[in-house]
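For reproducibility, we list the full input for the zinc ion complex.
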Amino acid sequence: MPLKLQADLHTHSVASGHGYSTVLELARAAAAKGLLLIGLTDHGPAMPGGPHLYHFGNLRAIPAVIEGVRVLKGVEANIIDRQGGLDMPPHYLDKMEIVLAGFHEVCSPAGTVEENTAAMLAAMQNPYVDIIVHPGNPRFPVDPEKIVKMSRETGVPLEINNSSFCGSRAGSEDNCREIAKLIARYGAPVVIGSDAHFAEQVGSFAHALAVAEEAGIKPGQILNITVERVLAYLEERRRRRGRTK
Ligand SMILES: [Zn+2]
Ligand SMILES: [Zn+2]
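The corresponding predicted structure, in tokenized form, follows.
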């Protein structure tokens, strides 16, 4: 019996420029799959064809619950320099209900393993960053042990990205497996994300879940296994940086 996850924290709408479903379609697909929560995490403004900052400034226009699915309004920010800087100013990041961060071609400078690792470690220590996405991307190789240790230390989960096994970021598979094994070994937190760019892919976790299980990751390590756990984590992150909501 495969593990049932209640939340998909990584989805894209048409606003990303290369996403093909509306927010309503994403929420409907989530409801149809029995998900209780999704993260609406369109790409940050540095992504070609991505949304202007005003997109993020007006997210309040979207209801908190659509089709019975809680929609967390957030961003998948781009790590844009070797210091872990993001393509969104702090006063915007502070308003997001969820902030993913990761490397993306065109937006992020690919460097040596040392440089990429330093940038990712810095992003993980950024109080606005909640989750690091697709750390197994072979275009931005990192030191897997260093990032998993930092994840355990900071409590910021790394993502096992399902789309990395379906054609995105070709060549990710082995890196993802290695990172998953280290996550299991160090007992670090983890997120399983679909990275859906079309509604049908919302809640598609099969490949990433299989890798997690094979690596020996315990259900208790998976943040998005329940809505309660997701919301408690995000609330705690915001409380720690001095924000109550
Ligand atoms: Zn991404
Ligand atoms: Zn994404």
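Residues 76, 102, 104, 133-134 surround zinc ion (ligand 1) (CB under 6 Å). The chain has a mean pLDDT of 95. Both points were considered when choosing residues for closer inspection.
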